Inverse folding.
């Protein structure tokens, strides 16, 4: 229902008041699931910047972990976006 | 920067926990990493000088940890971070003695500045948390919430979009609150530094 409301909203349709709470909940969950991995990526980038600025490079194994973690976080974001788009498509099809 | 300053990170997500710990170590802090309140509380006897905790810790929550930690170590500055960012929770955290409250993804520079600020306060007066919020007894949550909104607007020179971002709420929500409180278009009496993005109410 929340996704349908989301799709309607995106298409310019009217979202009923009964759906707003669910829409808020959906948006909040999506924001949470995307902000978390963004947080880790941002911190990792700053670690690299500090390493560069201080001339104090990370050990190779630590650097490898940093890259692996960051790639994993990018994948987490991609999964969230894909799930949202898939759900929206399915909802649109049902409405059609 | 002091190399022996000990900071505890409380975060249930391993990649986020490691990312924060890694950055803090690179900034020359000693770091203890924990993943839940019980594990964090097991370090009460260690010379932890600042705590950074996620608000949501799996089945547990950072507010509960904040309460329990402050019962035993009220002097420790405690920074909460969250991917949600709702004002009522921030207000509750502040009322319980949190030094600050940040929304993910945090600005690392701002976080490091905040850490330095709180460590400095703790060093100079021995009670870093006591300068943070002067909350008179009987203050309501709504009054605190309103004060947090006023401060955010002040910081951003009345710009509602930026203030809403700092508060972790939508512009529409902010506008609804301003309307409910019958607050006029915000006039800036004392523009403050843009650098300090902390959103809570400091003692005037």
């Amino acid at each position: 229902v929340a996704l349908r409301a989301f799709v309607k909203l995106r298409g310019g349709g009217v979202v009923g008041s009964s759906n707003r709470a669910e829409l808020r909940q959906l948006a909040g969950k999506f924001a949470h699931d995307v902000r978390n991995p963004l947080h880790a990526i941002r911190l990792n980038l700053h670690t690299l910047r500090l390493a560069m600025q201080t001339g104090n490079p990370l050990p190779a194994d630590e650097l490898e972990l940093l890259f692996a973690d960051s790639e994993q976080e990018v994948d987490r974001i991609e999964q969230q976006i894909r799930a949202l788009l898939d759900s929206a498509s399915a909802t649109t099809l049902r409405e059609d | 920067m002091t190399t022996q300053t000990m900071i505890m990170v409380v975060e249930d997500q391993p990649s986020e926990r490691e990312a924060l710990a890694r950055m803090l170590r690179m900034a020359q802090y000693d770091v203890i990493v924990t993943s839940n309140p019980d594990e964090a509380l097991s370090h009460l006897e260690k010379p932890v000088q600042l705590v950074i905790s996620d608000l949501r810790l799996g089945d547990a929550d950072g507010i509960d940890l904040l309460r329990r930690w402050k019962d035993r170590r009220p002097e420790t500055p405690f920074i909460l971070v969250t991917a949600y960012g709702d004002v009522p929770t921030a207000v509750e955290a502040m009322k319980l003695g949190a030094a600050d409250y940040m929304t993910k993804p945090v600005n690392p520079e701002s976080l490091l500045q905040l850490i330095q600020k709180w460590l400095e306060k703790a060093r100079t007066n021995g009670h870093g948390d006591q300068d943070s919020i002067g909350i008179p007894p009987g203050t309501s949550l709504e009054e605190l919430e309103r004060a947090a909104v006023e401060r955010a607007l002040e910081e951003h020179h009345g710009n509602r979009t930026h203030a809403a971002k700092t508060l972790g709420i939508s512009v529409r929500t902010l506008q609804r609150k301003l309307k409910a409180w019958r607050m006029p278009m915000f006039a800036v009496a004392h523009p403050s530094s843009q650098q300090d993005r902390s959103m809570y109410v400091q003692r005037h």
Remarks:
- The CA atoms of residues 3 and 87 of chain A lie 7 Å apart.
- Helices of chain A lie at 2-10, 17-54, 60-95.
- DSSP finds three helices and no strands in chain A.
